[in-house]
Structures are given as structure tokens and as C-alpha cells.
Amino acid sequence: MLAHDRFDYPLPAGHRFPLGRYRMLREAIEDDPRLAVRESRAARDDELALVHSAGYLGRATRGALGPRERAALGLPWSAQLVERARRSVGATIEAADDALEDGVAVNLGGGTHHAFPDAGRGYCMFNDVVCAIRSLRGAGRLGRVLVVDLDVHQGDGTHACLAEDARSVTASVNGGRNYPFRRVPGDVEVDLPDGAGDEAYLAAVRGVLDAGLARGRPELCFYLAGADPYAGDRLGRLGVSADGLLRRDRLVHDALGASGIPVCVVLAGGYAEPISDTVAINA
User: Fold this and answer.
1) What is the C-alpha separation between 105 and 84, in angstroms, rounded?
2) SS3 state of residue 58
3) pLDDT of 12
4) Residues near 13 by beta carbon (within 8 Å), at least 6 away in sequence
5) Are the beta carbons of 21 and 110 closer than 8 angstroms?
6) Which phi and psi angles does 281 have, rounded to 5°?
7) What is the arithmetic mean of pLDDT over 209-224?
8) Which bin fits 111, alpha (ψ -120 to 50), beta or left (φ > 0)?
């Protein structure tokens, strides 16, 4: 498991992004003797450039984003923010590489699926999953990929990045009336109404998993294990219980395990109040 939370990114008073959940999760699991947790490296410029345009990378790293770009990102710029974003990408690259060797690995963060090639949006500066896909392919380590995105918000940036990629399949279950409001079509996706609840949600997850796997056996699955479908999540609205999310994770685990598909897990969204509920779901 790769952690990047030791690189502090202070938020101004009143900002509601739950940054502390990453530290809380690491502290909750790092003493478990069954798990190995290590600090992630920062992604290099050449790795970020596999996905993001030179103009956007320059503005993002120098702090030269325009007012609309800053508003779309939703986080105040600082050098610490850039460092955290680089390490989140580095963690997913390392976790994906580890998963190919060991069968499973986890980034205790990541899932920044709203980042586009030329823009950061929705708390996402760089797209960690697509950077990892292209980095591993460039090293000759990876071919076909399945991205199972179970964050409650559609992964519009990931869909845009992979739209012309014949070796990648995206499968997602989204809150139909949730952010983003301008969608980018994915390969296999289901939009659910607010308050859908456990059984409708789990049926949708089974459906997109089956449909995604039916498109060809991937060499690796990236699983965005969002905690935000949770009934207590302030940005979720799908009404799924904590037990329902545990059943979901087991469903994904069992389906991939039965097919012998390695999995790289990233955490994506989670905004419960109290935030300890999100940490418990992630753990």
C-alpha cells in the first residue's frame, strides 16, 4: 500500500475538502501485520506529460492557473498541492506495477478521475490512473486494461483521456443527477437515481462488471473504490449503506479473483460527516 499523506497540504479555514481522511486511514491500517505500507514517490514530469499538455502542466506547477481554472479545480493552489498531486500519481504508478507482480496493491489516495489533459477539475489536478496506464505501457508492462469506477461521480476526465484507446474499457456506476453535469460517455455505465439504495446499486455494479469483463480479459483492473455512494456522504446521495459498500468491494474482489485479474485499488471520493465514516469504509 502506497501512502502520500505525509506531505502536508494545509487548507484555508472553512474549506470542506476532507484532506485529513488520508492520514486517518494510514494511521488506522499501518500497524496491521498483514499489510505493508510505504511512502510513495513523486511522479516525474515525463510521466505527467504522457497525459497532460505542456501548457497545462506549466500553469499548474508554476501556480499560473487562470481564475476559471482555479474555480474548476476547487482547491487553492500551493507548491504543497502540486507535490501531493505528484505523489498521488506516483503512488498509483507504483501500486499498478506492484499489482502486476503480486496480484493486488492499493494507493491510499488517488482516483483523480476529473482531471483532463488540459485542465484540473473537481479536486483533481492530475489523472493518476491514466498516467499509470500509459507509463506501464511505455515500459512494455501492460496491454488491455479495465477501469472500474465506483466513485459516485462520473469519471469524465478518465473517459475523455481513454475515448480513443481500443485497449482500455471503462465501467462505472454513477449518481445520475450528480456532478459532473456535462458528461463524457464511457464504455459501460449506469446512472442511478438519488436514494437508489443497496440492492439497486449492487445490481448495477454486477451488471457493469459483467459487461466490462465481457469485452475481453484485461491484464490489469484499476478499481476506484469510492466511498461516496454512502448514505451519510454529503456529496453522494445514492443512499448505500456501509454494509452495501462492503458487499460491493467483495463483489469486485471476487469477480476479478475468479478471472485471475490483478487489481490496483485507488480510493477516489469520500465526504461523509463525520469523516471517520469514510475512513472506516476505506479501511
Assistant:
1) 19
2) helix
3) 60
4) none
5) no
6) -65, -45
7) 97
8) left
